[in-house]
Amino acid sequence: MQIALIGAGPRNLAILDRLIQKADSNQALTINIFDPYPVGGRVWNPFFENNQTYLMNTNPNQVTLFNDYDIGQRRGEDLTPNLLTWAQSYALPFLKQHHEYPMAYREEVLSLTSMTAYASRGLMGVYAAWFFEEILNNCPSNLSVRFHQVAVKSLLEANPGFNITTTDYNHFFADKVVLALGHLDAELSEKKKDLEKFAKEKGFHYYPASHPAENDFSSLNENDTVLVQGLGLSFFDDLLSLTAGKGGFFLTKKDGSLVYHPSGHEPHLIIGSGSGLPPRAHGLNQKGANELYQPRFFTLERMQRIAKDCGGHLPYNTFRHVLDQEMTYKYLTNQVNLLDKLSDTEREEILDFLENPKNWQHVNEKFHLKLDVHISWEKEATPSRDVTSLSAFRKFFVQHLKEDIDSAALGNDKSPLTGAYDILRDVRGTVRTLYNDRLFDEDDYQKLLTDFKLFDTQLSVGPPLIRTRQLLALIKAKQVTIAGPNFSVAHDQQFFTATDRFDEHYQGTALIEARLGRPDFRTAKSPLLKSLRQHGLIVGDNRIINQDGTAPLANTIKVDLKTFTVYNKENQLIPNLFVTGVPLEGQSWFTTVIPRPHVQTIAFTEAATVVNQILNQ
């Protein structure tokens, strides 16, 4: 059997590992893997210089490529290291054998000793290369695996099977094909083309949405004013490149805060976004590799039971009410656990009392406490709505960062606020199951894709704490100007321009869209996706229709989520053609998840489904 895996990121590595583990020893398999980037994929490319300093967004003890949840018992714990234990054991010998990697990674693994630290993105790429080498070394003789560092430009049905052509015009045949393409660059819209044209005419610089590690800011200097649109994870990457990357440096004070010392070569940054605020910082990690919060209210069984009682649909307001209840419970119990003057008996009595939500409003009176029992999670996600002036917003922004830093420093388990935010990460599997099982009606799906996605992103998809501290230091050093919410960019005859909610106007000589592009196969630059579209082998998902007749998931490749088999333009399944990962974002909930040790994360569940189809169909 000939198998093609297009994309060499974590998802197809999980599929490769499972194929090797599960394949019949009597069946000959040839597996060809294609990716224009090194093993590990584009995001984790260790040869991008920026990836030596850009951080992962997950602590290293919570990152793995080994599916030790259901096939790990074949190998043993010491043979399936997570990223942290690998850095402390196998990494240095591997790097000494592979001189192609920059010396920075040897220095990094020697200092990566704590589960509270963060690894660089490039080190994740080195880990992926080691993982690939490791599983190939244990590959049975009936399997042949080859990696081709080249892009695929076309895939055509051969009936049966598929013909594959790469960009260097080599041809391959495959009986079965898996596409795990990750985030792809999009063709520029008319507005973006206009911005690009303007930049070229004026000698300015325009950076459309893309992978931040690939941005070249070498031409930007102290004479530039840069408009930065977006305050999410990509923003923090760009922020580092435009400050410390220009020769400045941060010093840590005794209280843990940072002071920035500029080099004088930094451009001035004007930053803004739709919400106006960056997402909350990740808390100092207090959780083990596979340690997940165990909910008391927001359990899968309870939510499924509510849906059944409501005629098969889970009302969005009920979904949010129960989730908010879970977060409030964590918020209250963490406040109690931080009280110093309680005996163990008193603490246990209060915690028992809090098990019943009806008691929450009475806990202060009963136990003579001063707990904050009134919390609005919606306001936590959008706290600046009532700010009425730019000067007030800028003060609010700085205070917001300070409070977020203090909260995150208490830890992702023990902090009342940050510990509650972290629940959203730990129950993501439950949300995904409810979402993927179509337990919401069409209107509520739209709320999930808009309201809840914003809520989840602002509270649980933030940067490492160090990045928020750096942002605060840069503001204090006057390297950054804060714009208001509803930050919108354009250009006039002379400059890039921006406005905000307070009708403030800004000008710049450079514009950065600090975000990844929205996954949309219809506008992707990828020659492969263009070929698949042109030949009708992929189509947008139209199974959910809004009241206005639009299909909110039309940007995603339509698949059968039970098998990940692709639908063609005739709405027929194409046997043995599979798509997983980011191109399904929206059909599946929150696809951009790194596998976690001893946890059945989405990359492993998708891999199990696809491999079962490949080997048994």
UniProtKB/TrEMBL annotation:
Domain FAD-dependent urate hydroxylase HpyO/Asp monooxygenase CreE-like FAD/NAD(P)-binding: 4-183
Alphabetical list of InterPro entries matching this protein: FAD/NAD-bd_sf, HpyO/CreE_NAD-binding, L-asp_N-monooxygenase_NS-form
SUPFAM superfamilies: FAD/NAD(P)-binding domain (SSF51905)
Listed name of the protein: FAD-dependent urate hydroxylase HpyO/Asp monooxygenase CreE-like FAD/NAD(P)-binding domain-containing protein
Source organism of this protein record: Fructobacillus tropaeoli
